[in-house]
User: Which sequence fits this backbone?
């Protein structure tokens, strides 16, 4: 069973001493092709392409121009320890032991606009490039065109090594669109997280992101590798709702927590 996550815009670039193990991204050549194109863009062009502030455009202009191969532990860092957004605060990979990281390396994949797909211990250099970016390349008018079937084919190669031929989709819609579900060699199971307030349930983006990370961590630390085990997830007061679920969509809900600082 293989789980897919989205990346994060927020990054932790501090040196880490948690593990000395690392691997290299499968699609470094493709990433370099994109970086070469992005290096030629002005700060103004990057700002307009990505819809970001002047400060972020300047930061990412610098990052793309500093991006270089070969990757090493001196100029890059493992992906699972670098991404630092809401999903990764839920994942909290700094708690992982060596055997957790080993299981994650085999069972977790991180989708990326720049790198295509990353294993947890793949080295990466800092970047910002969302999968939904309309970057024109020889392949088409978007990153979806650029990546085509490559991400899907990579996931299928990894799935072939798994005993259970199923995908768990903990990615956002933007990133999952980089996959061609009809070409996958196994069913896709998508957990959905809802908050209940005043008798009504709804998905709240912040809580859903954190829950995806929490579920990914729970799967890693409990060695969850069978689809039927997923319904046992019960962290942070979430409970599986069988009557709202199907084989492809697993619904978990809980009473909506109060705002931070309130009881």
Assistant:
């Amino acid at each position: 069973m293989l789980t897919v996550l989205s990346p994060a815009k927020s990054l932790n670039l501090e040196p880490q001493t948690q593990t000395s193990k690392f691997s290299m991204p499968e699609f470094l050549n493709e990433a370099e092709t994109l970086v070469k194109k992005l290096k030629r863009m002005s700060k103004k062009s990057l700002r307009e392409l990505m819809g970001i502030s002047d400060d972020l455009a300047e930061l990412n202009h610098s990052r793309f121009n500093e991006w270089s191969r070969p990757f090493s532990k001196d100029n890059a860092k493992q992906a699972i320890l670098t991404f630092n957004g809401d999903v990764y605060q839920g994942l909290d990979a700094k708690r992982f032991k060596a055997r957790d990281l080993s299981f994650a390396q085999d069972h977790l994949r991180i989708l990326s606009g720049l790198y295509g797909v990353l294993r947890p211990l793949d080295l990466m250099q800092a970047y910002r490039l969302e999968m939904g970016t309309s970057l024109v390349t020889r392949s088409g008018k978007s990153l979806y065109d650029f990546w085509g079937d490559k991400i899907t084919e990579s996931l299928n190669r990894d799935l072939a090594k798994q005993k259970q031929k199923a995908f768990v989709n903990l990615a956002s819609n933007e990133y999952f669109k980089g996959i061609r579900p009809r070409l996958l060699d196994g069913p896709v199971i998508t957990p959905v997280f809802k908050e209940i307030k005043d008798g009504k349930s709804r998905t709240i983006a912040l809580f859903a992101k954190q829950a995806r990370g929490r579920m990914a961590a729970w799967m890693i630390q409990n060695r969850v590798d069978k689809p039927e085990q997923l319904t046992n997830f019960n962290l942070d007061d979430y409970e599986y709702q069988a009557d709202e679920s199907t084989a492809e969509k697993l619904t978990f809900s809980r009473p909506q927590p109060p705002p931070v600082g309130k009881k």
Summary: Residues 2-255 form one domain. The first helix runs from residue 28 to 39. The longest strand covers residues 188-197. DSSP finds ten helices and ten strands in the chain.
